[in-house]
Amino acid sequence: MARNVVETARKFLLLGQCVPTVKQNAAKIRVKRLELDENLLMYFRKDEFYYCHDPQKVCKTGDIVLIQSLPQKLTKLITHEVKEVVYPFGDITDPITGKKVAKERYREDMDRQAEIYGKLPSSFDYDKAPSRGWQDGKKDFTSKPTYTKFHVFDENDPYAI
Amino acid sequence: MLRRLACTVVQSRGIKHTVNVKWVRPDYVPSYKPEKSGDLEGLPPIPESALGKDYALSEEIKDASEAVKKIFSVGHLGRKEYNVLVKKEMMDRVKRHQYDQGSAETKIAYLTGQIRYLQDTMDKFPRNKRMKQLVQERIDRRKKLLKYLRQYDYKKFEWILEKLNIEYKAHPDSFHKLSRKESLKRLTEMHCDDIRNKKLADYRSLLESQQGPFLKQKLEALKFIRNEQQELQLQVTVTEQDIQKVEKLLADWTIKDEIKQQAQKKKKSILLDSD
Fold it and tell me: Pfam families from the xrefs (chain A) (predicted)?
């Protein structure tokens, strides 16, 4: 069973989510699977993690990406490569109309509502907003995993809580 | 007696004695503190003479005397009215329109205002348990809202962090009490990594320092072979390109080597200066 899964994983593309990692030259991808428990005849979630080669750093934490295994292992850890970012995190497009969505509403609808009520200059403007990543490492610490602070170092690590 | 003494001498915790790492336990920081909640600024600068929120709307107060204005100022009306202004100030930074109360960004701003003035009061009365709980509830709720906002609208999430001056850190994998054993284990791992990396770097620099002389030798040998083959009118196996390649490598190496030696000199001079 397990061997079959491994073999098929090698052949096909896999869909997974990018998770925070300390590795600088690779992306860590979580692939969700369901595993059958033969005693209970029930499926249980089982996660698999793959380290993927990503020289251009196309995928950021939270993105849903397609990955494929490399013909040869790049290092002991890196076995796959990132093919394509399918769904960027927090930037959702409605597949039917092709419009941008925030939660359950279209962004343009929210803008129109604000205009009817009288838009204030303090409101957020999607057109002027820079693309994701301008706060990374400044105020947004999500690209690396956080951990419990265990020692007083000379330099304070923002990822230590 | 002797045996007991020997036991105490031999009995020792391996990690503690064999590896030279010193562990300093981080100080306890209460969770309501700004460094834990991620607030990078304190209360907004609202003067004591500012009028209360509702009184400022009144027509009569505009041409009232100084004494009347003083009575209706937040300094005189009390902390509660001041806090209303704090919340208003935070919400004004991100409001979509005049009547915006329920959007995620205004909710976050409202909570931020509450957190900031509660933190301020907690600093004055650190033993107020009820208030400690209130701050914690608000910090957690704001973090949850920020987490959701990040999931469905990343651009707005980053914008709001900048506007309200908040830091966002994801939850760690596990929340657990810090233990001495775990800390020492991690410190030892770091120490071992340092040693390994240092040895690898040393070996690398050693090999790189040998590259130059070898390339010089190779260049000479190639030139000699080419000359001999041409003189003896044999088949020429060494092309000009081969020689040029080696020359280029050698030039690259000399540039690198110079940079490295300069860096070493600088290091030495800094060390001498510090001594």
Answer: Ribosomal_S17
Q: Mapping DSSP to helix (H, G, I), strand (E, B) and coil, where does residue B81 land?
A: helix
Contact A129 B162 (CB under 8 A): no
CB-nearest to A126 from B151, B155, B176 is: B155
Distance between CA atoms of residues B16 and B18, nearest Å: 6
Query: Out of A62, A110, A150, whose CB is closest to B178?
Result: A150
Distance from CA of A147 to the nearest CA of B (A): 5
Closest to A87 measured CA to CA, from A145, A6, A153, A15: A15
- Bridge-based pairing state of the strands A78-87 and A64-69: antiparallel
Q: What are φ and ψ of residue A35, in 5° steps?
A: -115, 135
Structure tokens at B70: 């003083």
Full pLDDT tens readout for chain A, 161 residues: 566 766 665 668 999 999 999 998 899 999 999 999 999 999 999 999 999 999 999 999 999 999 999 999 999 999 999 999 999 999 999 999 999 999 999 999 999 999 999 999 999 999 999 999 999 999 999 999 999 999 999 999 999 98
Closest CA–CA distance from residue A112 to any residue of chain B (Å): 11
Helices B104-124/B79-94 angle, 10° precision:
150
Domain limits of chain B?
29-164, 193-274
At B187, the amino acid letter reads L
* Chain A CA closest to residue B40: A139
Domains of chain A: 2-87 (2.40.50.140), 92-131 (no CATH)
Record: contact B96-A114, CB cut-off 8 A: yes
User: What is the pTM assigned to this prediction?
Assistant: 0.85
Contact A122 B95 (CB under 8 A): yes
